[in-house]
Specification:
Blueprint (H helix, E strand, L loop, with lengths): L10 H43 L1 H4 L3 E2 L2 E2 H31 L5
Helix pairs in contact: 1-3
Length: 103
């Protein structure tokens, strides 16, 4: 056995690191859930709102010769969903960089 002592961090240092990690983790998940909530609200508004609830009002406008409510129900919501997916990946990469969780 070696007679050299093993250095261990002082209790205050390990507690500070643990508290900092816990605070970062909590802030990350708060930001993550906020982002998901906003994107889910947009998803709901476009799919249920524009495609079903407000279809009658949106039909007074047209896009490509079709009533806007019909267009949202058939194609527009799909385009919005795809845009939300791309935005989610962009926003999550930015969020992971901010909290140093990059792969």
């Amino acid at each position: 056995m070696s007679d050299t002592p093993i250095e261990t961090p002082e209790d205050g240092e390990s507690a500070a690191v643990s508290d900092n990690e816990t605070a970062d983790s909590s802030a990350y998940w708060t930001a993550n859930l906020k982002l998901l909530g906003i994107l889910m609200a947009i998803w709901f508004a476009v799919s249920f709102g524009a495609g079903i609830l407000f279809r009658g009002w949106l039909d007074q406008f047209s896009i490509g010769g079709y009533p806007l409510g019909f267009w949202f129900a058939q194609q527009g919501s799909i385009y919005v969903f795809i845009a939300l997916i791309f935005y989610y990946t962009f926003a999550m990469r930015r969020l992971e960089r901010k909290y140093h969780l990059e792969d």
